[in-house]
Design a protein that fits this description.
The protein has 334 residues and is an alpha/beta fold. It has 10 helices and 10 strands. α1 packs parallel to α2, α2 crosses α3 and α7 crosses α8. Bound molecules: NADP nicotinamide-adenine-dinucleotide phosphate (NAP).
Amino acid sequence: MIDPKTVPMFRLGDGGSIPCIGMGTFGSDRVSPDEVAGAVAGGIRAGYRLFDCAACYGNEEQIGKVFREAFDEGVVKREDLFIMTKVWNDMHREVEKSCLKSIEDLQCDYLDMLFIHWPFPNYHAPFCDVNSRNPDSRPFSVEEFLDTYRQIEALVDKGLVKHIGISNMTIPKLNAVIDQLRIQPAACESEMHPCFQQQDILDYLVSHDILPIGYMPLGSPRRPERDIEPDDIADMQMPELQEIAKAHSVHPAIICLKWALARGVLPIPFSVHNYEANLKAAVTEKLTDEEMAVIAALERGNRLVKGQVFLWEGAKDWHDLWDEDGVIVDCTDC
Ligand SMILES: NC(=O)c1ccc[n+]([C@@H]2O[C@H](COP(=O)([O-])OP(=O)(O)OC[C@H]3O[C@@H](n4cnc5c(N)ncnc54)[C@H](OP(=O)(O)O)[C@@H]3O)[C@@H](O)[C@H]2O)c1
């Protein structure tokens, strides 16, 4: 057990604070909802206070039972936890309904942070194949995004949500909306691991006082089949990372987490077997400047969540989702 009081906190731009590391809860279509909930139960008792959930992970009911037990047994109080969840793409026009369902399933009375999971309403079914396409999918629209965001702002006004989060954004999309938000986003979740560092979006977020949260911080070795391609690099198998891990007598996973923390990114690793060691990464020795420089050089542009299943008719390929030329691809109203 790690005393949660010893886990450093990050400051949020909209006031308040958040533990510097959280537990992910996406079973990647491989770990069952009950197993994920079991890890959350263990995680609370190991000292985790931040949990990254999502409606589309299909396990909020099971996790909610675990929260309820922890409250009833006096292990933690509701206010000790920072519970985050996300509106899935098929609920962008019914955000309050989605929020109330998550609150009910998670048995948590209110949400500490509610994210827009993806910036467009393109839905894919759980367990779908990489070639699956939804005919209703469409490109990013500023007005549609703002409409979804305003629904979360209204939930903040009602006291159901404390902070607003965004996710899977690009700099052009952020630029298109940022000045039109009444309540600034507190955090943004993006894929970030040593071989996919996203320094540009990290710098953008920091300069706008938005906390960067890094998902897949270990390079997600057991990610869903649809997100695996032959050329993908396994971050934790990079020899440089393994050497640093050896010097610290820890698994390379721990080095990925220490690296994230040192660059001001809040990591949310998922684990059924190693969650205590991951939390410990936040309270043990930091990496040296030399080690940080070695990891900085591991950037390989190794995006793992390419997002093919979100493509709209007429899109060229998954690169269109990420606005790589600095303009929002096929934006309908920019
Ligand atoms: N906003 C978004 O669109 C989005 C997208 C993807 C993910 N996420 C969030 O990010 C979280 C993390 O991503 P992820 O689960 O895909 O990938 P990840 O955290 O990078 O990797 C998880 C995998 O690493 C293994 N692992 C964890 N700690 C380890 C350790 N100390 N030593 C060895 N192996 C270790 C786990 O296996 P064991 O269980 O055996 O430890 C698990 O298979 C998700 O759970 C989800 O909450 C958000």
